[in-house]
Amino acid sequence: MGKPKSRLCKIGEKTLTGEANKKDKEVEVPAKTFVAFFIGGAADKKPYYGQGPTELVNFARNLFLLKLESLGFDQSDLRSKFTHHIGYDDAKGEEDIKSSVLNKIEDKDNTYIYLIGHSLGGWNAAHLSSYLMDEGYKVEYLVTLDPVGEGILVGMFSDIYWGEPKPKYAEKNWINIRAKFTSGNLDVSDKVADFGEQWNITSGPAINEILNIHHANADAMFSAVLSGGRSALDVISANISKKISLKANADKECNNGKSPDIDLS
User: Fold this and answer.
1) C-alpha to C-alpha distance for 39 and 83, rounded to whole angstroms
2) Using an 8 Å Cβ cutoff, are 141 and 173 in contact?
């Protein structure tokens, strides 16, 4: 991903020691960008003990691409630069994190990061959020879709972090959705989730809901309207649109000779 360009914009008068030094100053306004990682569970990105790949979280990613395209983002850039589908095991270990995550983030200081993890990918995404923030990256949102990983056996045979995650997230921007199908018979994915033991999250997320849905339906969890009237997809899409359009609007005002009020936080 090419490093986003910055622009120079006059920001008004700056009073120095005297009237002779009172003049407009030009400052470099860094361009903001984003990257979203969709982190799959067991058998999602690659085979897992003879099963898959299923690419379940990629269905959620496709909904995200369509949503952002409707908001004016370029589809080809979304697929190649701004969103990435990785496996749960790509989110653990120094070398895997470097090759699958860090190498996709060229402008550390000006990139908003969105982590969307399903099943084992949700468990590892929560751990990854802490790792990235400890390294100085800006994790803007964490979305965990029926995270799994509390079982001892699944921990022994899967490349997941030991110990319950303790996510670090900006402004409580964590959405957790738990699948609990009660409308009929459980399917294979529900039984697999039971084996791996769903993460029972009682506190932390700003949004924490249970849906009557199969564990496999990552896209439906991601797009389901929640009690607040919006889906996780709606929430993070709106957040991205707001964050990135701030800079676009600022550039427009600069070109029109105005002095924009820019929040660079």
Assistant:
1) 11
2) yes
